[in-house]
Design goal:
CATH superfamily of the largest domain: Apoptosis, Tumor Necrosis Factor Receptor Associated Protein 2, Chain A
CATH class of the largest domain: Mainly Beta
Largest sheet: 6 strands, antiparallel
Number of helices: 4
CATH architecture of the largest domain: Sandwich
Number of strands: 21
Shape: globular
Length: about 400
Amino acid sequence: MKHTLSEAVPSSPPQTSSAAAVATTASALTDQLPPATSSSSSASSSIPAEDLAVGSTRDGSGWAQETVTVDRRGEYSAVCRWTVHNFPRIKARALWSKYFEVGGYDCRLLIYPKGDSQALPGYISIYLQIMDPRGTSSSKWDCFASYRLAIVNLTDDSKTIHRDSWHRFSSKKKSHGWCDFTPSSTVFDSKLGYLFNNDSVLITADILILNESLSFMRDNNDLQSVSSSIISSSVVAGPVSDVLSGKFTWKVHNFSLFKEMIKTQKIMSPVFPAGECNLRISVYQSSVNGQDYLSMCLESKDTEKTVVSDRSCWCLFRMSVLNQKPGSNHMHRDSYGRFAADNKTGDNTSLGWNDYMKMSDFVGPDSGFLVDDTAVFSTSFHVIKEFSSFSKNGG
């Protein structure tokens, strides 16, 4: 059985059959997975918008008897334990935990005991929701998180049901999780160990938030100058066709927190505009001929569901890991190719290197690539400006 990974969208799509839902599952995140993946399968569906609107105040809860405890492991890492009492007798369609803070962001858990509109029949749906930082005045924000959601088996921890994933949360995509997390019959069976103390259930969320900063310099070749501009927002709402050349720099300030995670998942930068595409840097770890390598690639990523899917750009690019040790050399690798919004046209959605550099060279204490737990990745690019036309003469 495939467990589908879901995210919030502005409105609910039509109800699909279970077969169609699974078919969507298999293809939705194909381009997001590194060669070594976690055991959970992924897909795309949605949380109904009307459910997200209910009880959405910062300190609200789902009107259920509950207990929330948070174990913090630093500013950007925490484990939330959410105990919901009388779980089998709850009539509400959706429950949400109280908010808790991780990395400056407000987080909460959302559960549908009988599944949401996208769930397979008889399945429980569970989601992580991350809200904008308190005190921010901008509607444009995003953050990358790696997380594990679990329903704990108190009698046998080896039977605890858990799913792992990662996601870049934003003002438009605040929720992510599984519409078919596990069969409800498994949890509701009092003999299996998931219910305890008057039919309570324990749901946990292990969350890592990426501490990052970025800069984007755009070279405006059309003006025949070397002037550049800084785009301060980390989210690009749509394509910016006049950005034909530039440099994107992404600093990860808590890399060691994700050192184990990148063995099976990947970390991804915010997107930046390049020609008709939006690109991002992706970093993960691969094993090549028995040797561990830092892998890095450049990916195309649509930020809107309504954009034209046949747009593409031919791009020359250099990907770099910057050495922060004075007098030391940076690591550079160059490539080129055509990026497309999706792979339906046969063009690339991802280009890069599984064997970008040896992990031992990257993390070495004297190498200079990882200093004060900070790694600096960058890419310089040049988009080839193209014009094409086709006309058919009548015979």
